[in-house]
Amino acid sequence: MKDSFDILVVGAGPAGIAAAVSAAACGKRVGLVDDNPAAGGQIWRSGGEVPDDAQRWIAMLEASSVARLQGWRVFDAPRSGVLHAERGDGECGELCYKNLILATGARERFLPFPGWTLPNVMGAGGLDALVRGGVPIAGKRVVVAGTGPLLLAVAAHLKRHGARIVAVCEQAPLSRLVRFASRLLGEPAKLRQGAEYRIAIRGARYLTGCWIVAAHGRDRVESVRLRQGSKQWDVACDFVGCGFHLVPNIELPALLGCRIDHGFVSVDDSMQTSVPGVYCVGEPTGIGGVELAVLEGEIAGRAAAGRADEARKHAQRRRGKLGFLRALQEVCTLDPQLRSLPTADTRICRCEDVRLVSLDGHNTWRDAKLQTRCGMGPCQGRVCGPATEFLFGWRVESVRPPIFPALVSSLGSACEADGLQQNSAPQGASPAFEKETL
């Protein structure tokens, strides 16, 4: 499969949908590629509780001229203006573009602790997604732990599906949460939403400055040990949803050569990255919530379509919302005590079964990866990479294709397509043309 677009959007979450719809409204040929079978991303995932704003944007997407490539995963960017993608059935595609908008979203941050690999211990967002997909949770005892607004949202959703919320454990201290709430006085909608979540889980314990020390069980989790200050105690449970805020998915931007600053993609007021013609929106530029992500999508869609004046008007609104992004980053700062959670036998890399004791004596991510295979499994360090960054201060030093696991047949098809491209220079082409093509 091969297709070309004026503007190609990677990621069909809120930011990507807004970008695609806005660009298509400007008369451009727009493609929207995403590895999920339906648009909406994790935050607007279907399940009977889609917010009104989400329904409105998805309806606009369905009514637009946007070409939707659902179920396709981008795994390589071989040259400027081209991405390679693979569909779930193994078909390989070459997607060409004039301008590119990256809306690759974010994933949960996991911190290892004894027992975190037991069945029924999972990410808070992952547990929420399973319930939306039909996994029964009614009557089950659930502990939700970690940090960030997602905890309350997940707990409220699980409670509506009949779960017994035993406790919500927020690692941030109460003083920091109060300071965060005071900064939201200018955004009553967010305060109201937080209050609604808290009311929805009334009866459940909401503990601040608290986290899981260990999970216990034989065939699955049966209880967790909680710590709050100097106090520790055990709580029986059937499920644990644990996530320590979000980590931006910046592998594709990094592969394209976009400048990364403190873990996020650097952009200007039009959401353009350091690479001309490549824009980035949503969580990869900063974790600031769905409203900011949608606004950034609208800016990038208009800017990429050549509507600079319209993009600038929206950019002014964006600057006014960056205060929430900074406040959220502060409240989700991880307590240094969390570094002491894993014991010598705790798995740090689940894919390759690398335990903490095996990482002793290594000083960098690269060294540990070469000597222990940490980060070389199917997730390619997406779980253990952020964990070791927090635990040891290691940073992932490079990104190489394929950025996601791909079939050998897809890699072969991509190489064959590159070979045809390299051999397609017209006779008498200048050395500069040949060099650029190669």
Description:
With 438 residues, this protein is an alpha/beta fold. The protein folds into four domains: 2-107 and 247-330, FAD/NAD(P)-binding domain (3-Layer(bba) Sandwich); 120-244, FAD/NAD(P)-binding domain; 342-392; 408-437. Helices cover 34% and strands 24% of the residues. The chain is built from 13 helices and 21 strands. The strands form six sheets. Strands 1, 2, 3, 4, 5, 6 and 19 form a seven-stranded mixed sheet that branches. Strands 8-15-9-10-11 form a five-stranded parallel sheet, covered by helices on one side. Helix 1 (14-24) runs parallel beside helix 8, helix 3 runs parallel beside helix 4 and helix 5 runs antiparallel to helix 9. The radius of gyration is 23 Å and the shape is globular. The two termini are 22 Å apart. Mean pLDDT is 91; it is low at 423-438.
Summarize model confidence as the mean pLDDT: 91
How many helices? The count is 13
CATH homologous superfamily label of the largest domain = FAD/NAD(P)-binding domain
How is the main sheet built? Answer: 7 strands, mixed
From the alpha-carbon coordinates, what is the Rg to the nearest angstrom? 23 Å
Unreliable parts: 423-438
Notable traits:
438 residues, FAD/NAD(P)-binding domain, single chain, 34% helix, 4 domains, 21 strands
Map the helices and strands:
Layout: E1 2-10, H1 14-24, E2 30-34, H2 52-63, E3 67-70, E4 72-79, E5 82-87, E6 92-102, E7 106-108, E8 121-122, H3 124-132, E9 141-147, H4 150-160, E10 164-170, H5 174-183, H6 188-200, E11 205-208, E12 210-216, E13 223-228, E14 231-236, E15 239-244, E16 246-248, H7 251-255, E17 260-261, E18 264-265, E19 278-280, H8 290-304, H9 308-331, E20 347-349, E21 354-355, H10 365-372, H11 384-392, H12 408-422, H13 431-437
Parallel strand pairs: 1-2, 1-6, 2-3, 6-19, 8-15, 9-10, 9-15, 10-11
Antiparallel strand pairs: 4-5, 5-6, 7-16, 12-13, 13-14, 17-18, 20-21
